[in-house]
Amino acid sequence: MPAQGLFITGTDTGVGKTVVTAAILAYSRLQGRKTGVMKPIETGVDSECSSPANSDALFLMECGGIEDALAEVCPVRLKPAASPYQAALIENHSLQPETILSAYRTLSEKYDWMLVEGVGGVRVPITQDYGVMDLMRDLGLPAVVVVRYSLGTLNHTLMTLDTLKQNGILVRGVVFNQTEPYAMDAIEQDQPRLIEELSGVKVLGEFPCIDNLNTQSFSPEKLKELEASVDFSGLTQQ
After folding, report:
1. Residue 197 in contact with residue 149, Cβ under 8 Å?
2. Which end of the chain is more exposed for a tag (fewer CB within 10 A), N or C?
């Protein structure tokens, strides 16, 4: 698996992993780096009527101008909106981790740098005895952890970082993402400082809530605006 890159994970589902992945992807490709993307597993999507509006994989592909086959970018797509293991049980489908690893090997041979967006958090099960943590270890990519600002994020973030450390996975940094368009209070605004203080892990970005999010939200002009609060150079270093 020759390509370098990042595995973008999070403390939970819905924290904004796709937003962060799309921004890093667009920035990296804007810098001229040959960058690929992968969403190994996607649940809650109907393969017969999916589009960038309801499919993270298709959203990422359009944001990055990716022309790879969808089956390579997202080899596992399941309709039930559940963890991969539970969704597979509902569909009576047997998930094979090697399917994901094989697709990654194929993609990584085409690119110098790969971005892989996880599903849910680091302990989400893919099969009965194989989870996201195992996938991260097998791919060997450093992690970026996407987190919320809201109350409870200290516990969720510190547990996630501890779990990654205990499993020998290098963490490049933490990225905060504001999921709702409201004025944060002083407690929420102080979360990034506290995470750095308590974990020793660098916060590499604070994403504001992006109004009317779409595949044009990461244009060069928009990325320039994000540079005020996101350390893209730290996120895209080799």
Report:
1. no
2. C
